[in-house]
Each structure stands twice: as structure tokens, then as C-alpha cells.
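Run log, item B.
One chain of 245 residues. Sequence copied directly from the ordering sheet:
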Amino acid sequence: MPLSARSCPGRLLHPHRYTTLGYLAGQTSQLKLGTLVTGVHYRHPGLLAKIVTTLDVLSGGRAFLGIGAGWNEAESRGLGVPFPPTRDRFEQLEEAVQICLQMWSGDERPFDGRHYHLERPLNSPQSLNRPRIVIGGSGEQKTLRLVARYADACNLFPTPEIQHKLEVLKGYCEAEGRDYAAIEKTSMLGFDAAGGEQSVQQAIAALRWLADMGIQKVFMGVADVYRLTPLEIIANRIMPAAADI
């Protein structure tokens, strides 16, 4: 089971994440770089497509787009960022994904949606690879439908409902004429090295459970990752165990 690292929730605000990823692009050569996930309301989709494209070019083709409808109203209000109603955010999410896909295809025709209007969605320089799209969330009415229609991967909350959510996704894939197997199934897992050996064993057990539920990749939210020690523990103890799952 592949693992990916992400910042611990709440430690890195949305507006700062792409700055950090740009720095990491220059300091690494193999890491895939993206957010898990950015709220659609934080950035205009035309600019978001350009930001992810720039990250892809700077990293030699290692960027992906993690995106969702957003949820942290308190953070948005605190920073003065408009936080539209849920229905509007989901409509914005679909239009944003459509815009990104159009711009990454090189199509410069005007985009005229309900929420966004782009006269010429130019994307130059173009991304080296078309960034993979990960849509986060487990909503059965809207989110999973959008995953089936547009995404390369879903990102589900690590709950006992995962198998049911995947069945719902499979149904939407059938309705959309989409190959269910082509969508990567991912989830998330918190890890705090302060718990010592118990934390390690709990993480390994959780990975086995998620794999049994049908999850193929896990993004780990690592507490105090700036100390590096947690990453060393993951590399030396958890990743070897995950390789056997």
C-alpha cells in the first residue's frame, strides 16, 4: 500500500500550502506534490490551474490537484475569504474541475459557467503532465458523483462506511460509463510519533484495515513533521510493513 505524507490538519492554512509545495519542488526529486485538499472557494479556478501547472513544471511533472467543496468556514471568515453556501460550493467545484481540465488540454475557448466566466483560459507554459485530480469527500449525493465524472482518485474519510461509499461510487461510474477500476481509492490516517511503539502498531493495524476496506493509497497526516523524526519512523517502521499489505 503506497503512503503519502501531508501536513497535520490545522497546522498549515490553505493559502500557504502552495508556497510550501513550491519550496518542496526544489528540494526533492521524487515526491508527488499536491494538497489534500484545497477548498474550491480559496482560489479562482483559472488561477488555481495556473498554480498547479507552475508546480508541475517546477517539479518536473510531479504535481497533482487535490480539491473539494471546502468546509472550514471559521478559517475562511477569519481570513476574510467568502464562504458561499454548500450548494454553490459544489457547483463551483464542478466548474473548477471543468476549467482545469480544459486549460490542461490546451483549449482556449471561452468558459461561460454559472459561477465562473473566462474569456480566454490560456495556460502557458503548459503542464508537463496532465495533473491527476483527487476529489476529497464522502458525500453520496454530489461528491462521489463528481468523482465518477471527473476525478482520477477519490479521498474518503477513514470510517466503517468506506465499503458502502465505494459501492455508491461504483454505481455512479456505471451511470457515467466510467471504469470504476480506473479511479484510485484513497483515504487518510493521522500519525503522532509521540505515542512511541503503540502509535506505530496502531498505524500498521489501521493500514491493514483500510486495505481490507478497499483503499489502495493512504495519505498520512503527520504531527510535528518539522522535527523529521516522525518521517524517519514512517520510513523505517511503517512503510516496510505497508509494502506487505
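Observations after the first pass:
- Residues 3-243 form a domain with the TIM Barrel fold (CATH 3.20.20.30).
- The first helix runs from residue 14 to 27.
Flagged for discussion on Thursday.
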